[in-house]
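Q: Give me the 3D complex with flavin mononucleotide.
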Amino acid sequence: MNNLKTACNIPFAKKIIEQNFKYHHPSLQKNLFGLEFKNPVGLGAGFDKNALYLRELEALGFGFVEIGTVTPKAQIGNDKPRLFRLPKDKALINRMGFNNDGVYTIRKRLEDRKVQSSKLKAQGFIIGGNIGKNKITANEDAWKDYEICFRELFNCVDYFVVNVSSPNTPGLRELQEKDSLRKILSHLQIINHSYSTQKPLLLKIAPDLTQSQLDDIIDLAFEVKLDGIVATNTTISRDNLLTETAAIEKMGAGGLSGKPLQKRSTEVLNYLVGNAGSKLPIIASGGIFTGADAKEKLDAGAALIQVWTGFIYEGPAIVKKINKFLVTGNAVN
Ligand SMILES: Cc1cc2nc3c(=O)[nH]c(=O)nc-3n(C[C@H](O)[C@H](O)[C@H](O)COP(=O)(O)O)c2cc1C
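A: Here is the predicted complex, encoded as structure tokens.
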């Protein structure tokens, strides 16, 4: 990413990168939440946690990037090693623990970028703000952390995602329980409505929720008038992996992402679409590597898709390959 940054500082090099990686087609454009996405392929939260590489990611052709998870105070995250490759499974295990520069630094960075390149948004490059709570904040006070992040980033991002589904902040996933979630989301919606125009508010959920928990999420989504759901985050399951059990145990705790997550995340997507219909748009995340994977999610009713682990294994051409497949129906090498 740093090499890419250096290259993008040289105008003709940036142009060449864009020529190689961007793929435009009118049929890829999508209007959702009142926002114009130039294509449906986004980068999931946790890659550009600190909003350091937006220009570079835009040059690689992403339609949108979700920054964060951002917390009020800066955090160093868990001890290293905390990120592992499982090549046989085309998967990753991570327990990063919301390492980030904190919302005040990130807001400043986004404001500076806005001044430098006010054209970007006009071109349809959408930025989502994925927000969370600090590790030291008790769950009862979590709503305050979400409020701080929401207010600070309000003028710098195009949509918000409330993250209560990371397995790497102790107790965070308990906030997916209906009453805790209602408190956080209804509070954010009150703040949202205190502004003259509202920002789309989405919720990111774990793939490990039961059917009745998913029913609760759907009920609540309508009750607090959420704009959508990001489904799904990483899983704590270690089922059906090809990597040796001893090696997996040695890696330890964390969220599993990539190919082994694909099936379950599509199941969750199917359930949400089946029970909430088109009134609750879904951004699909989980195990998307190819155009066919993306099409599977879009055919199941996803409004947009996000890649993360696929970006690591397939490389920077993944966005172009997926978009080209969606337009032409042909796999590209
Ligand atoms: C190293 C790593 C860090 C991540 N950090 C975050 C995060 O901070 N916030 C979040 O909502 N999701 C985070 N995720 C989850 C991804 O955004 C994505 O939802 C998940 O990995 C499933 O997609 P994938 O199978 O394409 O990787 C992270 C994933 C990885 C691999």
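A quick observation: The CA atoms of residues 108 and 156 lie 9 Å apart.
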